[in-house]
Structures are given as structure tokens and as C-alpha cells.
Amino acid sequence: MTTTTEGPVLECLALEKSFGGVPVLKGVSLSLELGTVTALAGENGAGKSTMMKIASGQYRADAGTVRVRGEELSAGDIRDAHRLGVAIVPQELASIAHMTVYENLFVGRELTTRFRTLDRRGMSRRAAEMLEVFGVDIDPGARMGTLPVGMQQIVEIVKNSSRGAKVLLLDEPSSAISEREVEGLYRVVRQLRDSGVAMVFTTHKMAEIRALADRVVVLRDGGLVLDRPMTEVSDDDIVSAMIGRELEDLFPPLHTVPRDAEQVLRVEDLHVAGQAGGCSFQVRRGEILGLAGLVGAGRTELLEGVFGVRATTSGRLLVSGREVRRRSPAAAIAAGMALVPEDRKQSGAVMGLSVLDNGTLPRLSQFSVAGWLKQRARAQSVGAAMESVRLRSRGLGQEVGTLSGGNQQKVVLARWLTDDVQVLLLDEPTRGVDVGARSEIYRIIADLAEAGMAVVMASSDMTEVLGLSHRALVMREGGVVGELDRDDLDRPDVQELIFRLSSGLDPRTDQRSATTDQRSAAPDRRPEEGDA
Amino acid sequence: MSATAAAPLPRRRFSREWFVAQLIRRAMLIVMLLVIAFFSYRSLRFSSLDNLQTILVAAAPFALIALGQTLVILTGGIDLSVGSIIAVSAMTGAAIAKANPGQVWMTVGAAMAVGLLAGAINGFLVSRVDVPPFIATLGMLTAGSGVAFVIGDGAPINGLPAEFGSIANTRVLGLQIPVILMIVGIVGLGIAMRRTAYGMRIYAVGGNRTAAEIAGVNARRTLFSVYAVSGLLAGVSGVMLASRVSSGPPTLGQGYELDAIAAVVIGGASLMGGRGTVWGTALGLLLIQTLNNGLDILLVPAYWQNVIKGVLIVAAVAVDVWSVKRRT
Questions:
Q1: Are residues A38 and A168 in the same domain?
Q2: A258-272 pLDDT tens trace
């Protein structure tokens, strides 16, 4: 299979792309050679995904060209890209969950018998062969939806490579899969490389870049800032290229929290439905508590459990010493809690409603008398809240869906600020927000904490946890496995430590401060709580 | 939130873009005016006051169920059962009126209660048992039409007291009671949807249920309530219809759900939920009724009327989809 033609198989030349007047790519060039793996790294909003989508024909570039083996790709034509052998495996998988593995592999080019009927046995046999080449043990007759995401992803990769793809673009391939599955993915990628396929994957995980890539390309704010062979760069080079400045400039200075500050949020052995461990922690007034851990560690679940949108089976929640009813967002809101969820579009804002209506929603009862909305009061109050985060919009009547990512996030945050908030729960507060707005959102969070809120911030962005937390908890499999104070967070080897804790490796013995929370495993369920 | 896609109006008034945007925004209203102009030109009878009354009386029973349907569709659901609920409540009303000739209020109350009960069952199934709305209300559609026949023992209930027949024909300020109910319903609900917390909850749940729940909205309760309201309004509609024909035919209201859904869709609501208005529905409903009426006057056969209605429904949605695409 090895076709070692000299010269690049895919060339992107000076690609430019803007969305709604905001430049996302500013003249980026990139060329790939067969049999290599390139990591495309960068922060959220750096332009990685846009780049991939242009290279795979999903988007049309405003300027610049894409060439495959010297032939120009017709812009914005996925079928043309397929014809030339360029395929993308998107972050949200495009497989058909209700169909079997072999049906997914063959959909669009089905094998048929002499009588023009589907040759199911033939397809199943071919599918088994194709999968066997990669040493993965998947039953071709299994429903796609019953496989773990990692396996689905491998099937998707196999599908594309078996259709003659010579260039594979993998968009955040490991973002949704477990540790165990990652190894399988790595194996498949290496095998494809050895058979002569050119691959690019986007990521922001250092470990992944080290494990897979021959070469690393870093994008920042739509420009290419680094393009070198892996052997020539250190991890620090890559990180500072991604961030583009010292960490201290991105984050506001953290105020200190007095030792005797009042305890605002207290969580006692909270068991979230479907999660193995129970969690206990407390947050003081003015404190920002970071929640770190790998994808699937249960950070989002914990926040949602505390806020009551996710079912919890046992445990106690107290805000300022008063117990809050579990499993009731309304009770949580009444107690002064606020949640800024991870996914704005899925669960943050109602995109079709105006800024004003979104701002009214969390405190409807406060803004209405006998069910009737107080128009002036709500406009004033929501207006002031939006003003306080310096929202840039055409006015309160503008639909939230038409704002930029950073401004949407400000709406999702500021809509709580029309009344006192005691506890602010933030889930991935800067996902999908460009670098400029990120720094602004960090400042807002720090200001809110300084003004007296207790903040819990879950983030998969390690720099965010390190730069903005007074204290951090590391989570794994639904439980808290370690706690780091500010001094720990400032240690040079803290990233390594967090990684070890969150992936279940032994933290080095000299890390006395990383106390493993024994309580999380203790079966001290309250007798009155039945199991769900 | 306008009847069709709320394309943001360009800042400068009376510019060319502004006119185009206005044209798309007000497409429904413009079509309506054109239809009226056409019929008025073709027939003198069409634009008489008497005929307006006829249109309104014909529209009233549809208006009530279309209002309920609007709420349901705004939450992203659908209510297929309103036609059957009309039959059940009409039969209930007729049966009770026959047994207790003097008790007009009891009759009306019982018919409404039956509608509310049927709607509440829908609401329970959708909001608590998580049965898809299409299935839950399809079940109610089928079961309800069966119940209507059971009440009448397989036959229409006739020979009703005069008091029952007079409910729908009583005039207040020159307007028949169903027409007044329609007007009050449209205006009341139209205002409530924009001005009350309840209205906002409906838009929020339909627009993004998870986001609404995180903002503290009890989505299950909201969902339950829209089906209950839809059932209640169908109950009112049923008893008014039975009173107007002064009998209880078990097939009353058959197929009405489709007209109600058509009115909501023509009025610019999205079946995905979260987008649409009561005003749009009212306009869509009046458009359908005006067309029916005008085509009747011009002696266009009923079959052709259905063809025209069908084309109108698809055209309305096509224009809507196109105008949304146009701005992205």
C-alpha cells in the first residue's frame, strides 16, 4: 500500500476565512506528506476546526486554495474532497446509530448479489476483514449505537480509509473517549500512517501530541505561530505558542481569601445518579474552587447534581448553613445558586429568545406580579446586569443566537446577576470563546468572587484551573481523588501531578499535600435515602 | 417575534432592503389582503357585513382549538386529539342537556370538564410518562372518537331542549357567543404570551428545554399545562358546536385537528417549538376561513378548495424556510 510519492499530498495555501466579519483564519498555509501524522494544536477558537473544514470541503475559504496532489479542490464541495481522497472524522460522529457496523461501513456503496439485493453476508465478512487489519475486535453485526464512542470512532476511521482516503482529518479524536479506548485509537492511527496515509488531528492535549505526532502546527487567533518537527520542540514551546503570552497576563491577579471567611457552600457526600463516588467539599465566601479531571471524570455531573438538574441519590447540600432541597433547580436558585452550563447552545441560553427574555428567565417570579411581567423593572434590572459584564449587543431585544460566542457566554452568566448570587457554578466557562473575550470573562469571574460569591469552576483546560483557582479538586470516576491548595497549584510539576491523579496513577510519594479523599469511597449513606 | 421568520429589520427605514424585509415579514398579512381584495372584486356578497359575520361564526370553533394547538406546538409538541375531544365534549353536553333540560350551566361545565380531563391525560402522558406527543395524542384521538360513539350508543343524540340550542346563538353586543369567545381568546392569549411569566416559560421550554430547566423553569408542569389548556379549549369548542347544530353527532369535529395545525403552521410557527405567535395563528386561521368562504361564494367545488388549502400550507412553510435561510 505504501505509496511514497515525493512532495506534499495536501497543500493549503494562504487560507482566509471570516464569520460575520470576524476573521477566524488569517492566511494560514499548511502542507502534508504521505505517511505522516501532524498535530494541529491551539486554544479554543484558534481556527483549528475551521481549517479542517476548509481542507475537507465543508467550508468555502474567503481566500486561498487547497490542493490535493496538485489538483485544486473545488471550494465548499465535500464530494470533490472525497473524490480526491480527503476525509474528515468529525468530533460529533456522523455514524448512524441504529444501523449495524457493517451497514455503516458500506452505506452508499453497498455490495449486492446477482439479483440486485443486498449481500448482507458478503458485507459482514468484508467488514470483519477490514476491522481485523487494525486488530480491533468489533462484531460487524453489532448496532453502532451500542458501541463505546471510541469504537465508533475507529469504525468511522476504518470506513474512511477503506474508501481510499489518503488524507484523514481527525477533529479532536480523543475528546469523548475513555483512557482505555485511547490506546486503540493510537494503534489505528499509527497503522494507517505506516500504510502511507497522511493524517492531521486537532487537540489541546500535550500527551496526545507527544504520543502520535511527527510534527506539530500551532494556530493562535487564526494565524500560524509554530510549525516544526516534534523532535525539535519542547512542551513549553508548544504551550507558550498556544497561549501566546505568559499565563499571568491572561488571568487577573487573584485576591486572597481570608482564612476565617464564612463557608458558603457545603456539599456532604453527594452521590450523583450514575456516578460511582460520592463527593464532599466546601467553598468559602470569595473563593474560586477549580474542578479538574479528565473528560468523563464527572465534573459536569457533579455541578449539575449540586444545582439539582441532575438526579442525586443521597447526600446533603447547604448554602450558608441552610439545607437546600436536592433535585430541584428552583430550590437551588432560591438558595442563591446559579449555574452556567458547559454547552451554551444545548443548555445555556434559549437562542431564539432575546437578551431581555433570557435575562428574565431565571428570576421570572421576581419580575412578575400575579403572572404578569413587569416590563420596566425587568428591562432596567437585566439591562444593568448586562451592562456590568460589558455585553456588546444591539440592545436588549437582540436574539441571543445572533451574538458572538463570548457575548452569549456573558448573557448566560449575567442573567443570574439580577439578584444576589451566593454560589456560582461554572462549567467550562470559556469553551468556544475567543482569546480576547476569555481574559475578559476571567476578570468578571474574579470580580464576582471578590465581591463575595463562592465560585466552583469545572474546566478541562488545565491552564484555566491553574490560573484562576484558589484551590482545586481533582476528580476521577465521579469522586474527588485529590485536593490542591494555591501553593500546590504554583508548583512547577503540578500539571504532572494532576494528570497522575486524574488518570489513576500513583501520585508520587513526596506529594503529601495531595490528600486522597477517603470519604468519597466510604459507604455512609443515610438510612432514609433509598437507592434509585 | 413576528408571524414569519423574524429577519432583523435593517436600520434605515424605507431603504430597498427595508422594503424587502417588510415584505417577507408581513407576507401573511399581504396574502390575506390580496385574498380579500380578490373576493371583494369578484363578488358583491363577499364584502357584506352579513358575510363577515358568517366567516367569524365559522371560524370560532376552529379558533379555540387552534389557540390550544399554538401553545402545544410552541413547546415542540403536537395535539392530534382535539377533533375527538370536540366529539366527546359535544356528546357529553348533548347527553346531559337531554337528561336535565333546565341546567344549561351544568351542561357547559360538564362538557368543559370532559375536555380538560382528556387534555390532562394527554399532558400527563407527555410530561410524566414521556410518551412522544404524537403518539399520546394519536391514542387520545382514536380512543376519544370511540368514547363519543359509546356515549350516543352509536347514534347521534337528537331532540335537545331549546335552551341548549340557544347557547351558541345568543348575541351579546350583536356578536354570537362563540365569536366573542374567539375574540377574547385571541386577544387574551396573544397578550398573555408576551406579557406573562407563563408565556415566557412556554417559549423557553419549546426553544430549549434544558436551558429552561437550568433557569429554574418546571418544564414538566409547563408541558402538562399546554395539553390541559388545549383539551379545555377543545371542550368549549365542542359544546358550542353541538349547541349550534342543536344535536350531538358523534362524528362532530372529525379532522378539525388538521385545520388547527394548518392554521398554526401557516401562521409561521415552527413545529420544532419555540417560534410562533398567537397573532400569526389568528391570521392563518382567518386566511383559511376567508378562503373557504370566498371559494364557496364563487361556487368552487369543495375538492378544489382542499387542493388550494394544501398548496397554501406548503407554500407558507416554504417561504418561511427560505426567509430563514436567506439571512444566514
A1: yes
A2: 888 899 999 999 999
* Interface predicted TM-score of the whole assembly (ipTM), two decimals: 0.75
A377 touching B (Cβ < 8 Å):
no
What residue numbers bound the domain in which A239 lies? Answer: 10-98+143-246
Is a pLDDT exceeding 70 seen at residue A522? no
Q: Is residue B318 part of a domain?
A: yes
A113 interfacial to chain B (CB closer than 8 Å)? no
Residue A397 CA: distances (Å) to CA of A359, A379, A402, B43, B199: 11, 10, 11, 44, 17
Asked whether residue A516 carries a pLDDT value surpassing 70, the answer given is: no
What domain count does chain B have? 1
Looking at the fold, whether A240 and A265 belong to one and the same domain comes out as no
Contacting residues of A for B328, CB less than 8 Å apart:
none
Cβ distance B197 to A364 less than 8 Å, yes or no, reads yes
pLDDT, residue A501, reads 84
Question: Per the CB < 8 Å rule, is B275 touching A352?
Answer: yes
Would you tell me which residues 410-469 of chain A have a C-beta closer than 8 angstroms to some C-beta of chain B?
415
Q: What is the pLDDT of residue A506?
A: 63
Asked if B216's CB is within 8 angstroms of A346's CB, the reply is no
Domain count, chain A: 2
Q: Is the pLDDT of residue A239 over 50?
A: yes
B→A interface, C-beta within 8 Å: 6, 8, 195-198, 200-201, 203-204, 207-208, 210-218, 274-275
| CB contact at 8 A, A202 and A175 | no
pLDDT surpasses 80 at B326: no
* Angstroms from B275 CA to nearest CA on chain A: 7
How many C-beta neighbours within 10 Å does residue A412 have? 25
Give all strands of the β-sheet with A471-476 in edge-to-edge order: A337-340, A423-427, A454-458, A288-293, A471-476, A479-485
Q: In a mutagenesis test of the B interface, which of A361, A375, A412, A418 is the best target, namely the one with the most B β-carbons within 10 Å?
A: A361
Q: How far is A271 from chain B (nearest CA, A)?
A: 19
**Does A371 contact B at CB distance below 8 Å?**
yes
3-state secondary structure of A86: strand
CB contact under 8 A, B210 and A347: yes
A372 touches chain B (CB under 8 A): yes
A471/A292 Cα distance (integer angstroms): 11
Residue B213 to residues A374, B202, B219, B222, Cα–Cα distance (Å): 22, 12, 6, 11
Taking contacts as CB-CB distances below 8 angstroms, the residues of chain A near B196 are 368, 371-373
How far is the alpha carbon of B205 from chain A, nearest alpha carbon, in Å?
Answer: 9
CB atoms within 10 A of CB B326: 12
Residue A523's pLDDT is what? 40
The pLDDT of residue A91: 74
* Residues A184 and A317 reside in one and the same domain: no
What pLDDT is recorded for position A282?
Answer: 94
A307-365 residue pLDDT tens: 999 999 999 999 999 999 999 999 999 999 999 998 777 788 898 899 999 999 999 88
- The share of chain A scoring above pLDDT 90, in percent, equals 39
CATH number, domain with residue B110: 1.10.3470
pLDDT for the residue numbered A519: 39
Cβ–Cβ < 8 Å for B288, B270: no
Angle, vertex CA A368, rays to CA B277 and CA A389, nearest 5:
90
DSSP class of A145 = G
Query: Minimal Cα distance from B192: which residue of A?
Result: A372
- Domain holding B179, by residue range, is 45-326
- Label residue A509 by pLDDT band (50, 70, 90): very low
What value does the mean pLDDT take over residues B8-20?
A: 66
Q: And the C-alpha cell for A264?
A: 458558603
Which of A178, A238, A229 is closest to A203 using CA atoms? A238
The minimum CA-CA distance between A66 and chain B, rounded to whole Å, is: 25
User: Which residue from A minimizes the CA distance to B197?
Assistant: A371
